[in-house]
Amino acid sequence: MRLDGLLPFSSKKPKKYIFISGGVLSGLGKGATAASIGVLLKEQGYSVTNLKCENYLNIDSGNINPVEHGDVFLCEDGLEADLDLGTYERFLDKEVGYRNFVTLGQIYSTVIEKAKNLEYEGVTVEAIPHVPEEVIRRIREAIDGYDIILIELGGTAGEYQNIVYYEAYRLMKHSLPDDVMLIHVTYFPTPSHINELKS
Prior knowledge:
The protein is of the alpha/beta class.
């Protein structure tokens, strides 16, 4: 797969990409983990931003039942997003908005619009490579002006909808092995009958 124009950077200091995934259940605190890592990096003098990647087809969080997904965070630019953006805003003491939030609905809509506008120059548009390439484009857009980006992958690692985000990670890791990493947040229960952590 060609990534010409998607990944090369001209800055003296290479950008760093930290993907944060979770499994096997939701609600583990990926957002708080991403925001906390961001604070630690910011304290070391790096400029840091976040990107939340959701695996649903909604364009934003505004029309999702809050009982199912939690309350919506209203950003200064009008975006209705996941509450994790509020955590990023509080922890990093910076405004967040459209550049910090992406859904599969946004990604697929953009790919379809680009195909309709002949931006793919007549090639057959496919889920792979075009959808992960659009994810990478959004990541590059989000990191512009920053040293480090923390990319939180919504949901759990086992959800097949997330495959395009993991493919974007794989492509970036292959092209920039020293600048891309993955942190996986997981659940370690302590069953009462054995009283020790189990993975």
